[in-house]
Amino acid sequence: MTRMKYYSCAIACWALLAVVGRATPAKIEGLEQTQEIDDVDDRDPRLPRTCELSTDINGTSFQNPGYPSATSIPTGACRHKVYPVNDNICQIRLDLKDFILAQPNAEGVCAADFMQISGAMTKIPQICGVNSGQHLYLDVTPDFGSVTINVDTSAPGAKWSISVAQIECNSQYRAPAGCLQYFTNTYGTIKSFNYDATNFSPYTPPTATTQLANQAYGVCIKPQSGFCSVAYTKTSVVANDYTFSMTGDASIFPPGGPLPGYAGSADCTTDYVMIPGGTLMDTNYAVISADRYCGTNFPSKVESSIQPFALYVVTDDTETNYADTALLDGPNVGFSIDYRMQSC
Ligand SMILES: *[C@@H]1O[C@H](CO)[C@@H](O)[C@H](O)[C@H]1NC(C)=O
Question: With 0-12 CB in 10 A as exposed, 13-18 as middle and 19+ as buried, what is 42?
Answer without folding.
Answer: exposed
